[in-house]
Amino acid sequence: MPFPFALPTTSHLTFQSHLTSTTHPSLPSTATSHRTVLRSALKSHKRLPASAQSTNLPTILSALQSYIPYLFALDSALSSRPVAGEDIDVTLIQELAVEWRPTLSSASAVPGRDVPRIKGRGLDYEILSVLHTFSTVSTLLARNALLGLYASTTPEPAQRLSILQSATKHLTTANSIHLYLLQRMHSSTDPQSVPAGAVDVLEPVQAALAALSHAEATLLFVQKDDPYPVLLIQSRNKNDREWMIKAPEIPRVRVGLLARLCLSAAEGAGRAVAGLKSGVPGGVSGELVRYCEDLRKVSRAKACRFLGIEREMEGKMGEGIAWLRGGMVEVGMEPPKDSASVGLGKLRSEWKGWREDKRLEKGKADWGLDAGKAEEGRVLEWLERKWTKMNDTMNVQIVPDSRPLVAAMPSGRDVLTPKTWVPDVLLEEEVARMRALPEVGVGEDGAQSSDEEDAGEKSTAGLAGRDLVGAFPGTRNEYRGGNDSSYY
Question: What is the pTM of this model?
């Protein structure tokens, strides 16, 4: 958790072939240069091994933040809106056409095969694709930050709080970008600017991703006050013995609130599932749909656990155990009925937890794909076993059926206020710099159209001024026209 999204790649685009400006002639070429850097960073990221991709995310984020202001400057100029107080005259020479590779399509789940790029027309398609990439990078940065919770050295409370706040900030940024994209789609005058195959930037998918990121951020807010996952992380750390002597504590006044926040996250994950299944052309990745479903189950299981803790604090341990067993059902675990089932259930949960621990240790890209089901199952099983032993020896309270309790759970409550993202704009001095003509030496295309052409041009340039082997210096032109690298 969060979901391990893949980053897209894109085709080459030369703005000065499609747009021209009489007032700021350098704007199209400068935007092309920044886009070329972003495109190169995305292609390089795709070739990196999974273990090295997380360290490359800041590079892509920097390229995005450099390119987006120029992209929106072009958009404002085409819409006759001022940029940094200046009116920019931009004329459309021919309609833009650019290709982006979708990463959420159901076809992307086929091993060893890339989904073909989808060609879209107009600047809107470019803006939607770039901002979706920005939100994806923000989600991956949150995911990378959360790895610090599972380090070999258990982080101190202040460090843990800093990690969770950083991850929450990245997720709220992703959520705000999705909300901006939805707002832009609603106000767009050209609904046909997004092709049907571009699954990533379709309106139902963006609405689902907005609900998903909000649910994930809400659960991280809950995790700041939840000591039980920390207890289990410490128990698995051979160098940490604090968990053996210090019992977890939750302020009683916050337990009910945490349960309602978890139910709010479950509602958000449910909306995400509904959006992804709402007849999206081409279909959405089954992994993402399953993740959203698992996140909903985990959120409801957490709510059951907090409601059970609340009952245990009130002295109703039997009802608290029933809530825990209801949470176990939510995450697909079978509540124990006798000593034999306890042993088998414990063995199954330990096996699932061991596999997830190995994924974390090896830095595999698919860790957390279960949305935390294994971890929450461990907490529920540990608490249920502990409380059952206490109830059997001291309290001896009847454990009611958990199904009526789960069916009567309260409604959720939001704690994070969604905010729409506001794009960065160019500074006045940057806009003023665009009044000059493009720098000498920058070609009309700004960059080569592919990596192969880049490599070919570099190879030709390297041979252009080199004398032939065995020839007298300065006599290259006397051998077969001069530009031929062959003797014959």
Answer: 0.84
